[in-house]
Amino acid sequence: MTDTPTQLFIGGAWADAADAATMPVDDPATGEILCHVADAGAKDAQRAEEAAVQAQEEWARTAPRVRSEILRRAYEIIVERTDELAHLMTAEMGKPLAEARGEVAYAAEFFRWFSEEAVRIEGGNGVLPDGRNRMLLSRRPVGPCLLITPWNFPLAMGTRKIGPAIAAGCTMILKPAPQTPLSSLALAAILKEAGLPDGVLNVVTTSRAGEVCEPLLRGGRIRKLSFTGSTNVGRLLLAQSAEAVVRTSMELGGNAPFIVFEDADLDKAVDGAMVAKMRNMGEACTAANRFFVHSSVVEEFGRRLAERMGALVVGPGTRNGVDVGPLIDRVGRAKVEELVADAVERGARVLVGGRTPEGPGCFYPPTVLMDVASDSRLMDTEIFGPVAAILTFDDEDEVIRRANDTPWGLVGYVFTEGLDRALRVSERLEVGMVGLNTGLVSNPAAPFGGVKQSGLGREGGRVGIDEFLEYQYLAVPVQ
């Protein structure tokens, strides 16, 4: 912890908050304070905005190959420091070290991917249909960006936004979640070491999000907002962005259905369920929330899943052999406790887990609930914890209707051995992504995002850089 930056990163320099305010960073495994970091206010946001605006014009003119090589160097540094970054992430967020190392690799890959996309930004040209003008299309950076990241994937959510912004030629202000600022500050230090010019990336850690973000969005100099977080906060930010017509991309909440048909390979289905539910202790927007299992296999599926979930070892993420770390904080754990209690009151059977352990930290055991009533609160609430809620179905049309009966539409999971059914059901699900016989959909090379109230736009893949680029059309008379 001693080498981790704890100050704001503005204009290429480390600095305290203007009013010298700090905020604690807690270890969710113990409840103890790890350190204090700078707690930015409105004046600090103004300084960061000025740095980003001043750097924008020159950065936009930088050769794509230069931007590409900076990202590539940053990728290599991240890979070299995997263990250091993993320990830092586990300390502030709680996930087991094995998962933290996996996130470091995932995060680094966004920089490698967008280092390759930086040199492939293309326009176009051609004579228009009336023959009078030639059309020249060029693509330009949208301008200074505000990037807001969540606590659940503190390194990867940073690189997923910073990578395409750098590749496109945009400057930026990054505001990480107050629970997990250290990974973002470490990332800023790595990018500076990799040669990123001063002012291109500014990191503002704060517990005063409204004081920092609202003036930036309403002021007119920030031209792009990229946000990952809850739908409720997303709605607020969209309203704030409307005044200055700030371009937005939103990766919001999820309520993923996990559908197991009668012809599914149950080994694959249970393996997929463990990934879709237990990745990151269930604290993921892609986490399977509602398990719809055909009545002919539901008892067997529930038994197998409970056995696998019950065998997981819960404890501090730094301890050898631990599979499940703590939840992010006591507020998050209390929410999970309330949702499980509500389901049980409405008739759900607890196959495993369901009781909060005594002692320090924010731990909650892997839990499987059977016979969950459709009006239980966890059916229309993002659980964000290690709880699998199982319901039964008998008819394909019925389960599709129930799966789509939600305002969210990020991801769905379908398990069946029938190709026709696999394609038919996947196409009818109102989601942006489908995991077909797999519990993992996220990949830097694939477009990530949802429909309905799960968001706007896509991150990653070939289209990820589009969110940070504008088209300019130039009409040239044909001589």
From TrEMBL:
Keywords: Oxidoreductase. The keyword Oxidoreductase applies. The active site is at E251. One of its GO terms (molecular function) is succinate-semialdehyde dehydrogenase (NAD+) activity. One of its GO terms (biological process) is gamma-aminobutyric acid catabolic process. SUPFAM superfamilies: ALDH-like. Residues 14-472 form the Aldehyde dehydrogenase domain. It comes from the Bacteria. PANTHER family: SUCCINATE-SEMIALDEHYDE DEHYDROGENASE, MITOCHONDRIAL. Belongs to the aldehyde dehydrogenase family. This is NAD-dependent succinate-semialdehyde dehydrogenase.
